[in-house]
Inverse folding.
């Protein structure tokens, strides 16, 4: 049971589920554009998703947001809203495979932004993996030719930068809020932004003219590609780093290309297939390396504890004395020295995180890590 609680694979699986849903959504969205414009499609999609979250989690989100700082959740919400806005407009201007390539570039931007925000050193060990992923993405989406740069490609690149912002600041937001609230704020802000842009930039939508197929696609995008994926991403960010999540998201263009081949007739050449294999292999290797770096280190035995360990018998001149023959010696209590921050435990949730507090894991963490064992035993 302990191994399950500390496992990373459930959270990796959450992101992979998100990637598959995103990949299929990028392909089917083009069918919806046949009877509804991109901005109004986004507005209706996020409006339905906001309604679902308000219906099921409205009171819970309101209680959380009453005491939370606006700057704790607004940057991530704005980043996600801008990312979706740019991505869906790009889908109307260029091919789905080109959009998949450029939208997957948070793997380049997220580590840099995370180092700036967290004031930490840039992870140089990640550079080879970033280079390999970029090469694989190019082979996948350029199909052996060259990527043309137009308005659609620029919008997709902006979507990638905004998604990196959402990942990095979403990680920060989870220090104060739970995954449901973070996902709900992102959906609500995306709805308001897309609705405003649709009113200003596009003519009013005629809902009666929207085809049933488009309505089905919008429902799929609202319930699965928005509500479910936003929640899974927030849960995963509470356990994984934004860099790891951005690496896993690079698998999206692989599924986008597959679904685009099946449904849109966009071909996948041998070069594209090689690029897809390179992306998958690199993501697996990078995730494995990152997991080994995050593996907990066995705590060292304190010097005081080692000093108090007595041998089975005490040697003296003329013989030995059994342990029970010695008079007990009182040892003065030693004040506990604060150790490092508590590690991630109990299904990946840190003791200081929202879920750690809810599950009351403080003493369990001390017992597992060897910190404060004397006080617990007493």
């Amino acid at each position: 049971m302990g191994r399950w609680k500390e496992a990373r694979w459930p959270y990796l699986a959450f992101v992979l589920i998100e990637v598959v849903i995103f990949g299929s959504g990028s392909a089917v969205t083009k069918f919806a554009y046949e009877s509804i414009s991109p901005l109004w499609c986004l507005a209706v999609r996020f409006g339905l998703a906001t309604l679902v979250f308000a219906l099921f989690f409205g009171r819970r989100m309101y209680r959380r947001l009453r005491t939370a700082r606006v700057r704790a959740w607004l940057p991530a919400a704005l980043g996600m809203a801008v990312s979706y806005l740019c991505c869906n407009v790009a889908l109307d201007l260029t091919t789905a495979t080109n959009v998949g390539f450029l939208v997957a570039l948070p793997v380049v931007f997220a580590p840099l932004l995370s180092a700036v925000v967290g004031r930490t050193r840039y992870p140089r060990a990640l550079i080879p993996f970033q280079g390999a992923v970029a090469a694989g993405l190019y082979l996948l989406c350029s199909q052996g030719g060259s990527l043309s740069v137009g308005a659609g490609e620029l919008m997709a690149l902006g979507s990638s930068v905004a998604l990196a912002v959402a990942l990095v600041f979403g990680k920060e937001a989870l220090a104060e809020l739970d995954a449901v609230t973070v996902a709900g704020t992102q959906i609500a802000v995306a709805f308001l932004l897309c609705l405003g842009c649709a009113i200003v930039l596009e003519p009013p939508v005629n809902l009666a003219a929207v085809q049933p197929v488009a309505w089905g696609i919008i429902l799929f995008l609202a319930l699965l590609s928005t509500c479910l994926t936003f929640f899974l991403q927030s849960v995963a960010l509470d356990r994984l780093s934004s860099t790891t999540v951005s690496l896993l998201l690079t698998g999206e263009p692989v599924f986008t290309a597959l679904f685009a081949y099946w449904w849109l007739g966009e071909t996948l050449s041998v070069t594209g297939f090689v690029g897809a294999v390179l992306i998958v292999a690199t993501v697996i290797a990078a995730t494995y390396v990152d997991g080994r770096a995050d593996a907990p280190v066995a705590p060292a035995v304190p010097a005081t504890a080692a000093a108090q360990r007595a041998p089975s018998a005490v040697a003296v001149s003329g013989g030995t004395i059994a342990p029970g023959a010695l008079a007990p010696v009182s040892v003065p209590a030693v004040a506990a020295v604060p150790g490092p921050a508590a590690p991630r435990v109990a299904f990946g949730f840190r003791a200081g995180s929202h879920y750690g507090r809810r599950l009351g894991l403080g003493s369990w963490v001390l017992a597992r890590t060897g910190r404060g064992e004397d006080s617990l035993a007493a």
The two ends are 26 Å apart (CA to CA). The chain has two domains: 2-293, 340-378.
